[in-house]
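Quick question, first post here. What does this chain look like in 3D?
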Amino acid sequence: MVFEAAGAGEAFLLARVLFGLVLAFTGVNHLLDPDGMIAYSRAKGIPAAEVLVPATGVQLIAGGIGIALGAFPVVAAGAVAVFLLVATPTMHDFWAVPEEQQQSEMTSFLKNTALLGGALAFLALGGVEWPYAVGVGLF
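> Answer (accepted):
Ran it through. Tokens below.
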């Protein structure tokens, strides 16, 4: 089993909780500052931003909580991965912004890329029984 080493289950639980709660908090921000998020999304050329911003907020909250709890892990990690796969190059296109914005956008792009890697790792482990998980899921 993947988590047989001493402390591996606890370390994996901590990783899930930290990763999931950061994503859920990000989703909450989509809902707490919809005007700012919608304006930013529109400036990036996102169609139907007034619908997509709250929808992606809910997607991040559900995915983050699902990962943290180990509930529906494949769906949760997949939802996060899809969000990051789409949002990262569209929202943080550092190559297409004025020079004074490039560093900030590149930092966000790289952060999201790292988060995407984490989401893909959790997705890859979705079929494995996660230690300390709620124990519900499709796989």
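The helical segments are 8-32, 34-43, 49-69, 73-91, 99-124.
The CA atoms of residues 92 and 108 lie 6 Å apart.
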